[in-house]
Amino acid sequence: MNLKGKDLLGLKDISAEEIEYILEMAKTMKMILTTGNKKTPHLQGKSIVTLFYENSTRTRLSFELASKYMGASSANVASSGSSVAKGENLIDTGKTIDRMGTDVIVIRHPMAGAPLLLAKNVNSSVINAGDGFNEHPTQALLDIFTIKEIKGDLKDLKVAIIGDIYHSRVARSNIWGMIKLGANVSVAGPSTMMPPFIEQLGVKAYTTVQEALIDADVVMGLRLQLERQKKGLFPSIREYSRFFGLDEKRLRLAKDDAIILHPGPVNRGIEFTSSVIDGDKSFINTQVTNGVAIRMALLYLLTRRR
Prior knowledge:
By secondary structure, the protein is α/β, with parallel strands linked by helices. Helices cover 37% and strands 15% of the residues. The protein has a 5-stranded parallel sheet with strand order 7-6-5-8-9. Strands 2-1-3-4 form a 4-stranded parallel sheet, with helices on both faces.
């Protein structure tokens, strides 16, 4: 099997079979990642460019390490230090990178749809590393990979996603992907941070954390994205933490063997208490490792098409 398109722009428009195919390849890549010799020829002769119009640590670094571990040539373009700062538009920037012989462009952009626009105008494969409020497919894939690694399967698992659903591209990609693999997804957050018609995506929506947590197999917190929000969505950080923050007492509503996930970075004491973050149910650090494995898998699969 191969991925059907030349790009990975989101999980909304790919099949469950394609998701499973990526996850299977990630198993192999994690074996490579966890050995002493993290240098393979899988991407020898290939070039990867990360084009980030937004700041990032985990996503950008994991893509860069994934490409280097597999022998690719990699480069990073930050908008603040490039022709973008001089007024060059996205299409022209993309075409310039494309004509340099680039095989994969990894883009993060504050506007939804930017990766799609880029993909339509370049021959390179394009990977969406987060676009506006739309999707963040590689984060969702690593989240799903982590769940499968621990639980074996997503079918019939209850997943509770807690926090700022409205501004979260991570939540959207996870909803698309998890439902396709058979999970039952619940979301909870302040009513001002809940997208209208969210239940049309196939999830159950709650405005209290407690309802969503009951008998959950997986609890995923979301970062409170203050940089994307307008003022007035909630009274204060303290109030948000009081009503929607996750501590050990609230997590007792979930199943005894529930696992804790978070896309990071975590605002300690706001979304999760430190005891939850550092507890034995937390697999947040495992997610970071799995993020490199997923991105290794995607880079390999997309460059095999060329």
